[in-house]
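Extended Data, panel c. Modelled sequence:
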Amino acid sequence: MLMLKKQLEAIVGEENVSTRSSELYCYSFDASQVKGKADAVVRPHNSEQVASVVRLAGELGLPVVARGAGSGLCGGAVPVDGGIVLDMSSMDRIVEIDTDNLQVTVEPGVVHEKLNQALSPYGFFFPPDPGSTAMCTIGGLMANNGSGMRSVKYGTTRNYVLDLEVVMADGKIVRTGSRTLKTASGYDLTDLMIGSEGTLGIITRAVLRMHPLPRARSVILASFGNTALAGKTVVKILSAGIIPSACEILDSTAIETVRRYDPTVELPDAGAILLIEVDGMESAVKEEADTVGNVCSELASAIKVASTADESSRLWNARRLVGAAISRIDPKRTRVYVGEDIGVPIKELPGMLEYVRSLSEEFNIPIMTYGHIGDGNLHTGMTIDMLDENAMEHVNTVADRIYRRVIDVGGTVSAEHGVGKARAGYMELEHPTSMYVMRQIKNALDPQGILNPGKMGL
């Protein structure tokens, strides 16, 4: 181990390598239940250092796991087989904002919120909008193809990545794309890297497409007697030809929990609420907001339109609290991240919401349902009493039932948080005819299997 430490220090400097148990522990987990332990943590500052570390790892046959903010929910950046953790957070420069070409060049450690703060004065933004915006990094977003609340209209991270600089498993540095807004030249290696969770290469720089900020936004809050009615309304909104910039659901448990977490939040008593945002030019926004209100009125018990930007901001801040607030359902219970990032076809939403509710009753486990219902992405937040020796088994059974129902209706076990270790066991079930192709790609690009091993069922 001492020899490894000296070799790594020769690449990045003594101050950027750690093998102390206390520091290694901090890199042994993310926000999921997956655990591991690294042999060393390295904090590189440029792509050449990353490449040198990867080459050394290849010579020694050691795993290399790239890590951003550690806010992942599937064990994707956890060193389950040991090895070297590359902490990419020091590579956090916004290299260039090119407004003429509608693009921005960044390093992977740039925090999402800080990127949009930098783009705003120029009249642009990076549309993917994760709930963890204040902490998650662009590298992590790309590794998992994250998205968030505005993916209904604007799509996911992969829709905004034009070009990548990537360190491959042999230590070579390659560019994958083009600085043009579209290209039909060669294999789409950029898209291949997005969502690969660091199993095919390590991203060290990215050219991202940015989008003009909308002139106006309007937020509609619609209350419903239950989640199934809210799900049916989403289908009606989309069928009416309205593509909202965001469409979020909070069930009654989520509403109650957020209000308990922050008593100043003004959310109604309801079986479920939808937060629907439309954006664009002022005249178009007013027309679309009116249409959304009319559609919602068919099934909603109440409808409210935010009258000011401040009121809209408070509603979105309330939505962002959900993940943290779930721990307040019962102080004796702890949030567990299983069965929590499903995606289903739009028409399956009402049935899926009803199925989750029935599982909550059958197993007597509180399940807080919320998420990006406008694109079929639901988060099912479960909590358990960690002193109950059977609790985790019951939760895993519920998660298994959820995953299998999702796959049966043509859905996915991960819509935005990634597969990692936590959901790896379902990859064969979801991709029965294509897993062998994924494994062939993995073996071709990483024949030693050193890049983030043990993830994605590869």
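The chain has a mean pLDDT of 95. This feature is highlighted in the accompanying rendering.
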